[in-house]
Automatic annotation (TrEMBL):
Belongs to the FAH family. Residues 116-322 form the Fumarylacetoacetase-like C-terminal domain. InterPro entries: FAH (IPR051121), Fumarylacetoacetase-like_C (IPR011234), Fumarylacetoacetase_C_sf (IPR036663). PANTHER family: FUMARYLACETOACETATE HYDROLASE DOMAIN-CONTAINING PROTEIN 2A, FUMARYLACETOACETATE HYDROLASE DOMAIN-CONTAINING PROTEIN 2A-RELATED. The lineage of its organism: Eukaryota, Metazoa, Chordata, Craniata, Vertebrata. This is Fumarylacetoacetate hydrolase domain containing 2A. The keyword Metal-binding applies. Keywords: Metal-binding. Pfam families: FAA_hydrolase. It comes from Amphiprion percula. GO terms for biological process: oxaloacetate metabolic process. GO terms for molecular function: metal ion binding; oxaloacetate tautomerase activity.
Length: 323
Protein backbone atom coordinates (compact mmCIF):
# COMPACT_ATOMS: atom_id res chain seq x y z
CA UNK A 1 0.00 0.00 0.00
CA UNK A 2 1.35 3.41 -0.98
CA UNK A 3 1.42 6.00 1.76
CA UNK A 4 -0.17 9.34 0.90
CA UNK A 5 2.49 11.98 0.38
CA UNK A 6 1.55 13.81 3.60
CA UNK A 7 1.77 10.58 5.63
CA UNK A 8 5.16 9.76 4.13
CA UNK A 9 6.51 13.20 5.00
CA UNK A 10 5.26 12.91 8.57
CA UNK A 11 6.80 9.43 8.89
CA UNK A 12 10.18 10.54 7.53
CA UNK A 13 10.21 13.57 9.82
CA UNK A 14 9.82 11.25 12.79
CA UNK A 15 12.76 9.01 11.92
CA UNK A 16 15.02 11.51 10.15
CA UNK A 17 14.68 14.82 11.95
CA UNK A 18 16.87 17.45 10.37
CA UNK A 19 19.34 19.24 12.62
CA UNK A 20 18.55 22.50 14.31
CA UNK A 21 21.06 25.33 14.34
CA UNK A 22 22.05 24.27 17.86
CA UNK A 23 22.62 20.69 16.66
CA UNK A 24 24.88 21.96 13.87
CA UNK A 25 26.92 24.08 16.29
CA UNK A 26 27.43 21.08 18.56
CA UNK A 27 28.49 18.88 15.67
CA UNK A 28 30.92 21.43 14.24
CA UNK A 29 32.50 22.03 17.63
CA UNK A 30 33.11 18.32 18.25
CA UNK A 31 35.85 16.05 16.96
CA UNK A 32 35.79 15.06 13.30
CA UNK A 33 36.11 11.44 14.45
CA UNK A 34 33.24 9.42 15.90
CA UNK A 35 31.57 8.24 19.08
CA UNK A 36 29.76 5.06 18.02
CA UNK A 37 26.93 3.72 20.19
CA UNK A 38 24.42 0.92 20.36
CA UNK A 39 20.94 1.88 21.51
CA UNK A 40 17.26 1.05 21.64
CA UNK A 41 14.50 3.50 20.90
CA UNK A 42 11.88 3.76 23.62
CA UNK A 43 8.77 2.14 22.23
CA UNK A 44 10.60 -0.44 20.12
CA UNK A 45 9.60 -3.18 22.54
CA UNK A 46 13.10 -3.66 23.94
CA UNK A 47 14.26 -6.08 21.26
CA UNK A 48 15.55 -3.93 18.38
CA UNK A 49 19.22 -2.95 18.63
CA UNK A 50 20.45 -0.03 16.55
CA UNK A 51 23.85 1.51 15.87
CA UNK A 52 24.34 5.26 15.90
CA UNK A 53 26.86 8.08 16.07
CA UNK A 54 26.71 10.57 18.93
CA UNK A 55 27.05 14.25 18.11
CA UNK A 56 28.96 14.46 21.40
CA UNK A 57 28.74 12.87 24.84
CA UNK A 58 25.18 13.32 26.09
CA UNK A 59 23.93 14.81 22.81
CA UNK A 60 21.67 13.46 20.07
CA UNK A 61 22.43 10.32 18.07
CA UNK A 62 22.36 9.77 14.30
CA UNK A 63 20.48 6.52 13.65
CA UNK A 64 22.52 4.69 10.99
CA UNK A 65 19.75 2.27 10.05
CA UNK A 66 17.28 5.12 9.54
CA UNK A 67 19.82 6.96 7.39
CA UNK A 68 20.65 3.88 5.30
CA UNK A 69 18.47 0.76 5.66
CA UNK A 70 21.33 -1.40 4.36
CA UNK A 71 23.45 -0.59 7.42
CA UNK A 72 23.84 -3.34 10.03
CA UNK A 73 21.99 -3.36 13.34
CA UNK A 74 24.87 -4.16 15.71
CA UNK A 75 28.31 -2.72 16.36
CA UNK A 76 30.00 -6.04 15.74
CA UNK A 77 28.39 -6.26 12.28
CA UNK A 78 29.40 -2.66 11.55
CA UNK A 79 33.02 -3.40 12.46
CA UNK A 80 32.98 -6.53 10.32
CA UNK A 81 32.33 -4.27 7.31
CA UNK A 82 35.73 -2.66 7.89
CA UNK A 83 36.46 0.73 6.34
CA UNK A 84 33.26 0.57 4.30
CA UNK A 85 31.14 0.50 7.45
CA UNK A 86 33.00 3.34 9.14
CA UNK A 87 32.86 5.46 5.97
CA UNK A 88 29.09 4.96 5.86
CA UNK A 89 28.84 6.03 9.49
CA UNK A 90 30.91 9.14 8.68
CA UNK A 91 28.51 10.01 5.86
CA UNK A 92 25.54 9.65 8.17
CA UNK A 93 27.17 11.88 10.78
CA UNK A 94 28.10 14.50 8.20
CA UNK A 95 24.54 14.57 6.86
CA UNK A 96 23.12 15.59 10.23
CA UNK A 97 19.95 13.69 9.33
CA UNK A 98 18.04 11.00 11.18
CA UNK A 99 18.78 12.47 14.61
CA UNK A 100 17.29 10.86 17.67
CA UNK A 101 17.07 12.79 20.93
CA UNK A 102 18.88 11.22 23.86
CA UNK A 103 15.68 11.34 25.88
CA UNK A 104 14.10 8.95 23.37
CA UNK A 105 16.69 6.16 23.59
CA UNK A 106 18.38 3.75 25.99
CA UNK A 107 22.14 3.45 25.52
CA UNK A 108 23.36 -0.15 25.40
CA UNK A 109 26.94 -1.39 25.75
CA UNK A 110 28.79 -0.26 22.62
CA UNK A 111 29.54 -3.91 21.83
CA UNK A 112 27.27 -6.80 22.77
CA UNK A 113 27.96 -10.51 22.33
CA UNK A 114 31.63 -10.20 21.31
CA UNK A 115 33.47 -13.39 20.48
CA UNK A 116 35.98 -12.66 23.24
CA UNK A 117 36.36 -10.52 26.36
CA UNK A 118 40.10 -10.45 27.03
CA UNK A 119 41.20 -9.10 30.42
CA UNK A 120 44.62 -8.08 31.71
CA UNK A 121 45.58 -8.56 35.35
CA UNK A 122 47.95 -6.41 37.43
CA UNK A 123 48.78 -4.01 34.61
CA UNK A 124 49.49 -0.94 36.79
CA UNK A 125 52.65 -0.93 38.89
CA UNK A 126 50.96 0.75 41.86
CA UNK A 127 48.15 -1.82 41.78
CA UNK A 128 50.80 -4.52 42.11
CA UNK A 129 52.45 -2.66 44.97
CA UNK A 130 49.19 -2.22 46.91
CA UNK A 131 48.87 -6.01 47.07
CA UNK A 132 52.58 -6.76 47.54
CA UNK A 133 52.72 -8.62 44.23
CA UNK A 134 55.68 -8.74 41.83
CA UNK A 135 55.58 -6.59 38.69
CA UNK A 136 54.65 -8.88 35.76
CA UNK A 137 57.27 -9.45 33.07
CA UNK A 138 54.61 -10.58 30.59
CA UNK A 139 50.90 -9.71 30.41
CA UNK A 140 48.66 -11.71 32.74
CA UNK A 141 45.64 -12.68 30.65
CA UNK A 142 42.26 -13.97 31.81
CA UNK A 143 38.71 -13.59 30.53
CA UNK A 144 35.10 -12.86 31.30
CA UNK A 145 32.17 -14.51 29.57
CA UNK A 146 30.49 -12.09 27.13
CA UNK A 147 27.26 -12.54 29.12
CA UNK A 148 28.82 -10.41 31.88
CA UNK A 149 28.60 -7.30 29.67
CA UNK A 150 25.93 -4.78 30.59
CA UNK A 151 25.12 -1.22 29.61
CA UNK A 152 26.74 2.03 30.74
CA UNK A 153 23.80 2.93 33.00
CA UNK A 154 22.44 -0.53 33.84
CA UNK A 155 22.40 -1.98 37.35
CA UNK A 156 25.14 -4.13 38.84
CA UNK A 157 23.45 -7.15 40.41
CA UNK A 158 24.97 -8.39 43.66
CA UNK A 159 25.01 -12.20 43.54
CA UNK A 160 23.81 -14.06 46.62
CA UNK A 161 26.90 -16.27 46.26
CA UNK A 162 29.35 -13.46 47.10
CA UNK A 163 29.81 -11.05 50.00
CA UNK A 164 32.94 -9.34 48.59
CA UNK A 165 32.02 -7.55 45.34
CA UNK A 166 34.53 -4.89 44.30
CA UNK A 167 35.02 -2.23 41.59
CA UNK A 168 37.79 -1.86 38.97
CA UNK A 169 37.72 1.06 36.51
CA UNK A 170 39.54 0.11 33.30
CA UNK A 171 40.40 1.47 29.88
CA UNK A 172 38.90 -0.89 27.31
CA UNK A 173 39.47 -1.17 23.59
CA UNK A 174 37.70 -3.01 20.79
CA UNK A 175 39.25 -4.87 17.88
CA UNK A 176 38.25 -3.58 14.44
CA UNK A 177 39.67 -6.19 12.07
CA UNK A 178 40.72 -9.81 12.03
CA UNK A 179 44.33 -10.70 12.78
CA UNK A 180 46.74 -13.33 14.08
CA UNK A 181 50.44 -12.96 14.97
CA UNK A 182 50.10 -9.18 14.72
CA UNK A 183 53.32 -7.16 14.92
CA UNK A 184 53.41 -4.60 17.70
CA UNK A 185 54.22 -1.80 15.26
CA UNK A 186 51.05 -2.65 13.29
CA UNK A 187 48.81 -3.39 16.27
CA UNK A 188 47.00 -0.06 16.62
CA UNK A 189 45.65 -0.40 13.08
CA UNK A 190 43.64 -3.39 14.38
CA UNK A 191 41.97 -1.32 17.11
CA UNK A 192 38.59 0.27 16.28
CA UNK A 193 38.37 2.46 19.36
CA UNK A 194 38.31 2.87 23.13
CA UNK A 195 35.66 2.85 25.84
CA UNK A 196 35.21 2.69 29.63
CA UNK A 197 34.76 -0.55 31.57
CA UNK A 198 34.20 -1.66 35.16
CA UNK A 199 35.75 -5.08 35.80
CA UNK A 200 33.41 -5.87 38.71
CA UNK A 201 34.96 -8.65 40.80
CA UNK A 202 33.77 -11.03 43.51
CA UNK A 203 36.98 -11.20 45.54
CA UNK A 204 35.98 -14.22 47.62
CA UNK A 205 35.55 -16.30 44.45
CA UNK A 206 38.56 -14.75 42.72
CA UNK A 207 41.04 -15.14 45.57
CA UNK A 208 39.91 -17.96 47.81
CA UNK A 209 37.44 -20.24 46.05
CA UNK A 210 37.27 -22.19 42.77
CA UNK A 211 40.92 -23.19 43.22
CA UNK A 212 41.81 -19.47 43.08
CA UNK A 213 41.04 -19.44 39.38
CA UNK A 214 39.79 -15.94 38.55
CA UNK A 215 37.06 -16.71 36.02
CA UNK A 216 34.02 -17.31 38.24
CA UNK A 217 34.78 -14.30 40.43
CA UNK A 218 34.93 -12.08 37.35
CA UNK A 219 32.03 -13.25 35.26
CA UNK A 220 28.76 -13.06 37.20
CA UNK A 221 25.93 -11.49 35.21
CA UNK A 222 26.28 -7.67 35.01
CA UNK A 223 29.98 -7.77 36.06
CA UNK A 224 31.19 -5.87 32.99
CA UNK A 225 29.48 -2.46 32.58
CA UNK A 226 30.76 -0.97 29.31
CA UNK A 227 30.33 2.34 27.50
CA UNK A 228 29.02 4.89 27.01
CA UNK A 229 30.43 4.94 23.45
CA UNK A 230 33.10 3.35 21.29
CA UNK A 231 35.34 6.35 20.65
CA UNK A 232 37.28 5.76 17.44
CA UNK A 233 41.06 5.76 17.68
CA UNK A 234 41.44 8.98 15.68
CA UNK A 235 39.24 10.76 18.24
CA UNK A 236 41.54 9.94 21.18
CA UNK A 237 44.66 12.11 21.31
CA UNK A 238 46.72 9.67 23.39
CA UNK A 239 45.00 6.65 24.96
CA UNK A 240 47.96 6.24 27.30
CA UNK A 241 47.73 9.69 28.83
CA UNK A 242 44.16 9.77 30.09
CA UNK A 243 42.98 10.47 33.62
CA UNK A 244 41.08 7.45 34.95
CA UNK A 245 38.87 7.51 38.05
CA UNK A 246 36.33 5.47 39.99
CA UNK A 247 33.88 7.03 42.43
CA UNK A 248 31.55 5.18 44.80
CA UNK A 249 28.66 7.27 46.11
CA UNK A 250 30.58 10.36 44.98
CA UNK A 251 33.78 9.51 46.91
CA UNK A 252 36.92 9.01 44.81
CA UNK A 253 38.28 5.49 45.21
CA UNK A 254 40.66 5.28 42.23
CA UNK A 255 42.45 8.22 40.58
CA UNK A 256 45.31 7.58 38.17
CA UNK A 257 46.44 7.98 34.56
CA UNK A 258 46.64 5.38 31.81
CA UNK A 259 50.31 6.30 31.25
CA UNK A 260 50.93 4.10 34.33
CA UNK A 261 49.93 0.96 32.43
CA UNK A 262 52.76 -1.57 32.24
CA UNK A 263 51.67 -3.10 28.93
CA UNK A 264 50.11 -0.64 26.50
CA UNK A 265 47.49 -1.32 23.84
CA UNK A 266 49.83 -2.31 20.99
CA UNK A 267 51.79 -4.70 23.21
CA UNK A 268 48.58 -6.38 24.39
CA UNK A 269 47.25 -6.85 20.85
CA UNK A 270 50.56 -8.32 19.70
CA UNK A 271 50.84 -10.63 22.72
CA UNK A 272 47.31 -12.03 22.70
CA UNK A 273 47.31 -12.51 18.91
CA UNK A 274 50.17 -14.97 19.35
CA UNK A 275 47.66 -17.36 20.91
CA UNK A 276 44.25 -16.60 19.37
CA UNK A 277 42.86 -14.99 16.24
CA UNK A 278 41.41 -11.58 17.06
CA UNK A 279 38.12 -10.72 15.37
CA UNK A 280 36.05 -7.53 15.00
CA UNK A 281 34.19 -6.75 18.21
CA UNK A 282 36.60 -8.49 20.59
CA UNK A 283 36.80 -6.46 23.80
CA UNK A 284 40.01 -5.93 25.80
CA UNK A 285 39.98 -4.70 29.42
CA UNK A 286 43.48 -3.37 30.08
CA UNK A 287 43.74 -3.58 33.86
CA UNK A 288 42.89 -1.38 36.83
CA UNK A 289 44.91 1.23 38.75
CA UNK A 290 45.33 1.17 42.55
CA UNK A 291 42.45 1.93 44.89
CA UNK A 292 40.25 -1.15 44.71
CA UNK A 293 38.20 -2.01 47.78
CA UNK A 294 39.80 -5.31 48.72
CA UNK A 295 43.17 -3.70 49.53
CA UNK A 296 41.83 -0.82 51.58
CA UNK A 297 42.30 -1.04 55.34
CA UNK A 298 39.79 -2.27 56.30
CA UNK A 299 38.50 -3.72 53.00
CA UNK A 300 35.47 -2.00 51.45
CA UNK A 301 32.94 -3.85 49.30
CA UNK A 302 29.92 -2.79 47.31
CA UNK A 303 26.47 -2.99 48.91
CA UNK A 304 22.96 -2.55 47.62
CA UNK A 305 22.14 1.07 46.90
CA UNK A 306 25.72 2.10 46.09
CA UNK A 307 26.33 4.04 42.88
CA UNK A 308 29.58 3.40 41.02
CA UNK A 309 30.87 5.91 38.46
CA UNK A 310 33.86 5.09 36.24
CA UNK A 311 35.36 8.01 34.32
CA UNK A 312 38.07 8.29 31.67
CA UNK A 313 38.95 11.60 30.02
CA UNK A 314 37.85 11.94 26.37
CA UNK A 315 35.79 8.73 26.63
CA UNK A 316 33.11 9.60 29.18
CA UNK A 317 31.52 8.03 32.25
CA UNK A 318 29.52 4.95 33.08
CA UNK A 319 27.25 5.10 36.12
CA UNK A 320 25.80 1.92 37.62
CA UNK A 321 23.62 1.41 40.66
CA UNK A 322 24.21 -1.69 42.78
CA UNK A 323 21.08 -3.73 43.45
Amino acid sequence: MRLPLRSFCIFRSLICRRPTTADARRRNSSSAAMRLVQFRRHGDGGSIIRVGVELGEGLGVVDLKAFDPSMPSTMRELLELGDKGLESAHRALASGQCLVDRADIQLLPPVSAPEKVVCVGMNYKDHCLEQNAPIPQKPIIFSKFPSAITGPYDDIILPTESQEVDWEVELAFVIGRRGKHIKEEDALSYVAGFTVANDVSARDWQMNRNGKQWLLGKTFDSFCPLGPALVTTDAVKDPHNLNIRCLVNGATMQNSNTEQMIFKTAALVAWVSKFVTLTPGDVFLTGTPPGVGVFKKPPVYLKRGDVVECQIDQLGSIINKVI
